Amino acid sequence: MNRNLGLVLYLLLAAGACAREEEVDMKKAILESTLAGSWYDADPVRLRSELEGYLRSAKVEEDPTLFAVIVPHAGYAYSGPCAAAGMKALAARTDLERVVVVGFSHRIHMPGRASLPSRETHYRSPIGETPLDTEAIAGLMKNPLFTDRPETRRGENSVELQLPLLQAALAGREWKLVPVTLGQLDDDARGQAAAALGGLMDGRTALVASSDFTHYGPNFGYVPFRTNVEANLRKLDGGAVEKILAGDADGFAAYCDRTGATICGQDPIGVLLRMLPEKFKARELAHDTSGRSTGDWENSVSYESIGFYGAGKAAKKPEAKAEGRELSDDDKKILLSLARKAIAQALKGKAPSDPEDLGVEPTPAMKQKMGGFVTLTTGGELRGCIGEIFPRRALADVVLDHAIDAAFNDPRFSPLTAKEFPGIHIEISALTPPVPVASYRDIEIGRHGMVIELGGRSAVFLPQVAPEQGWDLATTLTHLSYKAGLSGDAWKDPRARFTVFEAVIFHE
User: Fold this and answer.
1) CATH superfamily of 24-310
2) How far apart are CA 112 and CA 436, in angstroms?
3) Element (H or E) spanning 6, and its range?
4) What is the pLDDT of residue 18?
């Protein structure tokens, strides 16, 4: 017993020592490169020589009114020459004091959020150190959109590939860095990010939006054409560039949806396009493909550098999105019927792939991109409930798919049987876009659905759950924590993040 007590005391003291050491180290805490030696050369002499060579070879018109660039983020051997054109154009800004780099997470699921390094003071690559703008980062962290997820920076190339190239382009100058890693954003979250980052555009700040363009070939699951690949890729990329040069955020998103163009940085580009001042000019600085450099057109990635010029100071506020079409009583009846028909067909072994398979033509309101849940009950008891929170596709498609999921794929229940089917009751919840809140205190019982995120775990309750159970806020959050696999008081943890949404609820 004494031995165990001694071990506990040792661990507590060790933890305290680590905390004190961390406090001292915060005077200079380093955000280390995680890709040196894999994505680019770890030898400082060779790396600097390579990057300076790309910059020397880049042919761009110097224009000191440049305030933003879009640049690629593949390995330097592939996208370095194209990216260098954007960075060389940015280097014409001799008055720069800060650069905001906006990338995104290829691998970490982080819907509706953006990550910042809030505990580090400097970034270090093989060719040197660059101070972070800790004051600007601290200001952004007050916005509930932003969090600090260190795993979004480990092995993530969308931000890090920009940094050594920036250091080479701005060598010998004093400037600070704000590296932003976006999660998976909807239109509202892009607008929030644009408003927050727009506040940093003070005339001495430039923004770098990180994105590769079309990922073509079987390795990427995207083969829209098989002949004249080089010319067709240029045409496909050109359609997206046209929307970008016009500053058309909605048109760019619609083009990507229509063509399926596999432009990985749609969120950074979408945020930038929502930040543009009223008067700006944009021009394409460089275009390239990995196919050109390797001679392999079976699989190829496209690269673009695009510059934005003008005042660059007062970023325009994102326009308020018009309210979506309200679901009519007829719409609700059709959606409920659609859910029942989908389950009936699936019971026959013929699961439908879209509403038209069931003779249902969705109305404009039903075609809106919305999140939604389908809940099945029998005798007043839950029998299945599955859905999706973020608005990524038409509500009619959400209802069709999740009616089947709730009936047959909810892991809490055995698959629905034909004998049970006549007795089930169907309820649909059509969701508003979720938004982060600063604290659990901002959650309103009966109005808000809610998501808790902590330590890589998460859980969701629909708005009707708490009123149906007669729970107050504390009880609701306790059960939400349990559902996430956390302790009952995890919701009190200051690291816990909350997202809320509202719902239009209708049932048979």
Assistant:
1) LigB-like (3.40.830.10)
2) 7
3) helix 2-25
4) 35
